[in-house]
Amino acid sequence: MAVIGGYLPETTVNMVDILSIYNIPQLTYESFFPRQAGKIRFFSLYQMVPDETFQYMGIVHLLHHFRWTWIGLIAVDDDNGDRFLQTMVPLLSQNNICYSFILRTPKRTYKDEFIMLLYTLQEQYHGLLESKATVYVVYGEPPTMHILRMLLYASENLPLGGKVWVVTSHWDFESLSIQRIWDVETFHGAISFAVHSNQPPGFQKFLQFVRPFWAKGDGFIQEFWEQAFGCSFKISSLHEGNDRVCTGNEKLEILPGILFEMSMTGHSYNVYNAAYAVAHALHGFYISKVQHRRLIEGGRKAFQNVQPWQLHHFLRSISFNNSAGDTVQFNVNGELVEGFDVTNWITFSNGSFIRVKVGRLAPQAPHGQELTINDDLIIWHRSFNEVLPLSKCNAYCYPGYSRKKKEGEKFCCYDCAPCPEGMISDQMDSDACVRCPDDQHSNEEHNQCIPKFMTYLSYKEPLGIILAILAVSFSVVTALVLGIFMKFRDTPIVKANNRSLTYILLISLLLSFLCSFLFIGQPGKVTCLLRQMSFGIIFSVALSSVLAKTITVVLAFLATKPGSRVRKWVGKRMANSIVLSCALVQAGLCTLWLSTSPPFPDKDMLSLNEKIIVKCNEGSVAMFYCVLGYLGLLATVSFTVAFFARRLPDSFNEAKFITFSMLVFCSVWLSFVPTYLSTKGKHMVAVEIFSILASSAGLLVCIFSPKCYLIILHPEMNNRDQLIRRKK
């Protein structure tokens, strides 16, 4: 009806070539066989194992889980090994995993000469020693296991050291008598993908009572018994030289795991499920016959003979739960719909071992959750001291660094480059550093973004305190000068220099010193609006007062000439008109500035790495420089007029003092522009405050210090007689 068999792919191919001719169902319990050769040829083949490609994806998930990116690949040197590498290598590359080497183990046949095979293996073994990879992914059938164990046994003088062996489900610890002396310690801690298995009830109890004489006519059990227990039966001629006689009462449970396991392995579980699958298919077939094609002969039921090809429909549609509680069913490709167990191999000094189930690879799980691993259950090789092994081309790049590819190396090999200022990496092996938000900056380790602190010129820092003291001091001095001039307002010196213009100039200088306080402290909406406006208008009043004084001196001299028409222009009305008109022009510019693009509080997060500059954004930079330009124009005109009027005959001619004051004023503000543009943050504000104080102080000192000197220290010179004498 059906054939259960085909342990190795080669055996399966040979069987399916014959059985497919007669359309006989074949259930293979171990081999993974590709179906790309054609569906018709393998229509009669059923695999009691899941899709092999899913196992390869599981290996990639496992490598990702433990962050292993530098591995070695070992595959048998045949078509199956080629298929493994053709599938695995692209998968590794797509998932940022590199291989250090690819080792092809020879496929063992009976024609191999042992010495030549050993020589070839030892040459390949040196490649394993030179590799920095800690994890070896191994693909091969059970004969490959024997060859690898042979290699490790023959190279005991060159120990391989602690490695993590990740093996596919094709492998198994099978042992022959000669392999009893081969140590399996190297494979301690290995991780294996195994076809899912379970323990049917009563199976272990059955094994405890197995005896070699049960299966009469089947010599396999007796041969296994002799090989496993190292004895011989009297009736056997194979071990005539063996003195120990098998009693048949030996216990299977005393055998080491490398010889016999008391639990049902994946292979046995597949055979178990295959037998039940055929039984369920036959049952389904007979049930359908009873219902649809029953023949009555003499009152008794008679069934047509079952043909093998008739079972295919029932095999493909079976779905049942076995005695262990697992569901058995096939997919459209005739593969078992099942996952893989992830097992941890633990070996012992007596050559025995156990498999501990530590995870599961389930195809039905949601994407990204196919692999589940219990890390706490895994026991690593003793050389790792129970620490998770590291398998990378180079050490981890710690937070604060990013990976930088090495030229000429595989992409898994890289240097660790520190993150630049303002960028961080907060994970191991970051591909690139990430820029911090604008309001944060990187810490010293460049692994965390921390908030920037706000900075502005405040009263709590030395620079702000010094500027505030200077502003107060100059304001007090200006107020004292104003008081002196008001006290001595009827003296000739004060009268001769136009008292009203002098008062306007002193008051505007006092206000200019006081407006410096608008620039100190955290900028607000009101202070930002008042800063430049008050500065521009107050300074225009001061400069227009100076200009009016200078023009008054010139007009007064011209008016002394006989028949001059200039005399009608001399007077307070003309001076006040100059001050008012010049101030109104500046007020108009400031009004236009406020109506189009007024200043506003702003935060500059980019200029400084660790600070947020709280400042007043000028709104329109063009209008800001228009205000400054207008002040420069007034200063230039005042300087020019004063320069030409400095030699006019007058006892109290201020022109020469105004010339010096305008020279100081222009020098300060000409140096202000490049300095202002080259500074940032609170220092930019400090430069503007200093320019305001310096230029105002220049006007105060140059114009009023000579007068105060005469009024306070030489009052005898401040009289009408002295004035007339000096004119003569």
From TrEMBL:
GO molecular function, one term: G protein-coupled receptor activity
PROSITE patterns per record: G_PROTEIN_RECEP_F3_3 (PS00981), G_PROTEIN_RECEP_F3_4 (PS50259)
Protein family: Belongs to the G-protein coupled receptor 3 family.
InterPro entries: ANF_lig-bd_rcpt, GPCR_3, GPCR_3_9-Cys_dom, GPCR_3_9-Cys_sf, GPCR_3_C, GPCR_3_Ca_sens_rcpt-rel, GPCR_3_CS, GPCR_3_vmron_rcpt_2
Originating organism: Eublepharis macularius
Record's protein name: Vomeronasal type-2 receptor 26-like
Compartment list: Cell membrane
GO cellular component: plasma membrane
Residues annotated as transmembrane: 463-488, 500-521, 533-558, 578-596, 622-645, 657-677, 689-712
Residues of the signal peptide: none
Principal location listed in the UniProt entry: membrane
